[in-house]
Structure formats: C-alpha cells, structure tokens
Amino acid sequence: MSDAIVEIATIRLKPGVTEQQLVAASDSFQRFLAGVNGFLRRELLKHGNGEYADLVHWRDQAAADAMTAMAGTSSECMAYFALMDMDGMGPAEGVRHYASLAAYGGT
C-alpha cells in the first residue's frame, strides 16, 4: 500500500452549459493542476446519463488537501467550477478521497 490518493468529484452541468464548454474549462484547469506539487494524473469521465466525474491521482492526502486550499485563488479552477450545478454546495462538497490499496496496469 502507498500513500497515493484518488480523488473522485462528480459533476452535473448547469443548464445551458455544453460538454464542449466543460472540456475547454477542464483543459485550462489541467494546466493549473500540472503545476501543483503532488499531482500525478487526471481523467475527465462521462456517464451515459449526462453526469461527469473528475478522477485525480495525488501523491498523498497532503497534496490533495493543498490543492483544495488553493482552488479558490485560481481563475482556472473558478472558471471550471462555475460550469457546475452545485445546488448551493461548495466545490469541495462533491469530492471524495480514496486511499489506493493496490494499482494494476501501466503508469
């Protein structure tokens, strides 16, 4: 077992927001994340029901927590979050962190 953390954030888009807008904002958000210490990799996922998920791999919980603390200071993060229907919740409320028990396959 390692200290690696997998973060899963479920996403619902605000009415009128397109998938293309989501991907464009996600691309900008990725440029921000690429410079965050402890960031490993990320995937934007789509479910058939119109729900999305952001899957982020972190070196450890401290790295994930540091990004959460920095999110409000990043225009890229705020633009990404602005597309999401959060029903009055803050961006961190739909996020869960899981400890990696085992990893398989490629890097």
Automatic annotation (TrEMBL):
Q: One Pfam match, by short name? A: ABM
Known SUPFAM superfamilies for this protein?
Answer: Dimeric alpha+beta barrel
InterPro entries reported for this sequence: ABM_dom, Dimeric_a/b-barrel
Residue span(s) of domain ABM? 5-67
Q: What is this protein called?
A: ABM domain-containing protein
